[in-house]
Write a structure and sequence with these properties.
The structure is a single chain. By secondary structure, the chain is α+β, with helices and mostly antiparallel strands. It has four helices and nine strands; from the N terminus they run E-E-H-H-E-E-E-H-E-H-E-E-E. The protein has a six-stranded antiparallel beta sheet with strand order 5-4-3-2-1-9, sandwiched between helices. It has a three-stranded antiparallel beta sheet with strand order 6-8-7. Strand 3 and strand 4 form a beta hairpin. Helix 1 crosses helix 2.
């Protein structure tokens, strides 16, 4: 199967996931600590279903959550990308991210999320992007803030048999994220848009 590379940043490459990524994806989705905001770790069946949804999104929309590859090692350390998500009475374009816990607190989520927001604005011509985050997930809220987003509203989502308050952080096309005010020649803020 052909590898479909989507984005590159100084430390990361993002590409479409394939069935071969199931073990690496399992290291993320089957980890209780990583998945606390989802009310616990996934089973292998739920992990396969998650992967199947991404593959369907690539076919339907041309985007979804992508594998985040650490350039230094070639290892899949997380997933980050764009999905259409229900929010109250409409669908919104979300930047989502989940990483293996051994790669937390190194700036990878922020680096990947910023690249995905730029992809949404430049390639998809989106007017805004958001991140929908459980109210107890403070690290992900900090990533959204570093991605230039502002908390705009809240909503209780029903997921896996529980009511979970969520916050929506939004960034509009004309709002630059911190550190992205200037563009380097030949690249957009160190981000290579592959498509």
């Amino acid at each position: 199967m052909k590898t479909v590379w989507v984005l590159e940043t100084p430390r990361l490459c993002l590409r479409e996931m394939t069935q071969e990524d199931l073990p690496a994806l399992g290291r993320i989705l089957r980890d209780e600590e990583v998945m606390y905001a989802y009310n616990g770790a996934f089973t292998w069946e739920e992990t396969q279903s998650w992967l199947d949804r991404q593959l369907a999104r690539y076919r339907e929309w041309g985007f979804g959550l992508w594998a985040v590859i650490l350039r230094e090692t070639g290892e899949m350390i997380g997933q980050c990308g764009l999905t259409m998500q229900p929010w109250k009475d409409r669908e919104v374009l979300e930047v989502g991210y989940l990483f293996q816990k051994e790669y937390w607190h190194r700036g990878y989520a922020t680096e990947a999320a910023r690249a995905c927001a730029q992809y949404a604005f430049r390639r998809l011509k989106a007017e805004e992007v958001c991140s929908i985050i459980r109210d107890t997930n403070l690290p992900s809220q900090r990533v959204a803030l570093r991605n230039g987003m502002t908390k705009t509203d809240s909503w209780v989502k029903h997921y896996r048999g529980a009511e979970m308050p969520h916050l929506r952080y939004v960034r509009r096309r004309d709002e630059a994220a911190p550190g992205q005010e200037h563009e380097r020649k030949g690249e957009k803020n160190g981000i290579d848009l592959r498509n």
